[in-house]
Amino acid sequence: MFQYQCLNPISKVGLDGFTNDYIKTEEIEKADAILVRSASMHEMKLPENIQAIARAGAGVNNIPLKDCAEQGIVVFNTPGANANGVKEMVIAGMLLASRDIVGGVEWVKQEKDNENVGKLAEKQKKQFAGCEIKGKKLGVIGLGAIGAMVANTAIYLGMEVYGYDPYISVDTAWKLSREIKHIANVEDIFKECDYITLHVPLLDSTKGMISKDSIAMMKDGVVLLNFSRDLLVDETALVEALEAGKVKKYVTDFANPTVAGAKNTLVTPHLGASTAESEDNCACMAVKELRAYLEN
Ligand code: NAD
Q1: What 3-state DSSP class applies to 251?
Q2: Where is the secretion signal located (predicted)?
Q3: Is 236 exposed, middle or buried (0-12, 13-18, 19+ CB in 10 A)?
Q4: Which atom of ligand 1 is closest in space to residue 147's alpha carbon?
Q5: Measuring from atom 43 of ligand 1, which residue has the nearest CA?
Q6: 239 lines ligand 1 (CB under 6 A)
Q7: DSSP β-bridge partners for residue 145
Q8: 117-124 and 101-110 helices, crossing angle to 10°
């Protein structure tokens, strides 16, 4: 019989991250499996009885994979289950980087008590003017579940899309629009594109892929989007490039102090997959995987 216990009473579906208090509870020692969202398990002593860990999400860098392998613990993630939620955030990020909707909304709020706000707006609106994404070149680095969806949607929005992924699966390749131009060298994405979006996992080989050198190759005024992982980007080099105007906007889902208050950044607190639909999809897939594994 498959039973589960929610270790976080605040969570509706029992999938919220473990806090240290909960990690220390005795209940977890009795569990056969753990289901975790994005909270880090690196500081946690893995209970001896655990047979499997399901990560309700895509990135598994919060799981101590080496320790799991040594203890014979099987690790699952939920590929693609939150891809649409992240894709919509990326498209929104691209639009917000191009149109100063945030600045315009803030300005109207500031003038809320001014009875002439309408007239004043006509004079002030120039400062919030933007550009359209149609016709611009978008580079998508990593064409997995999320990257493929972003690339396909951008094609529909009239962008010229360049994709780079040396390990693309046949399954993903079939889902991609034929209008996407496949690029063999990531350097060509850096050199050619007006917008660059990262959709690779955090690995030794991808860590710091956006560096001082790669930024130097990019077009002046490039917009960079990072909804994958913060450590893909050398944020110190990036902030310098933002200050210098080399990078026009940095849109990221990772709120580090280096970028949080930096010029021309739009930072969200890891909201990419925070939709009711993505959370349900991930929860259902993770439970299904654990059930299948434990009951067989
Ligand atoms: P995925 O595994 O489906 O796709 C990743 C792709 O990256 C694969 O196709 C792989 O071949 C490719 N890749 C690996 N190394 C590469 C390299 N050096 N250059 C180019 N491509 C490379 O994963 P996904 O579901 O698309 O998620 C991608 C990442 O997005 C996750 O690893 C996670 O870090 C992040 N993510 C963020 C959020 C969020 O809330 N912001 C939510 C989900 C996922």
Answers
A1: strand
A2: none
A3: exposed
A4: 26
A5: 58
A6: no
A7: none
A8: 150
Would you put residue 14 in left (φ > 0), alpha (ψ -120 to 50) or beta? left
126-165 per-position pLDDT tens digit: 999 999 999 999 999 999 999 999 999 999 999 999 999 9
Q: What is the pLDDT of residues 74-94, one digit of tens each?
A: 999 999 999 999 999 999 999
Atom of ligand 1 nearest to the CA of 60: 32
Tokens representing residue 26 in the block: 């005795």
Kindly state if the Cβ of 250 falls inside 6 Å of ligand 1: no
Q: How far is the CA of 143 from the centre of ligand 1 (A)?
A: 8
Q: How far is the CA of 100 from the centre of ligand 1 (A)?
A: 28
pLDDT under 70 in the chain at which residues?
Answer: 1-26
Q: How many Å apart are CA 133 and CA 150, to the nearest integer?
A: 13
- Tell how far the Cα of 83 is from the centroid of ligand 1, in angstroms: 10
pTM (predicted TM-score): 0.90
Atom of ligand 1 nearest to the CA of 201: 32
Complex ipTM > 0.90 = yes
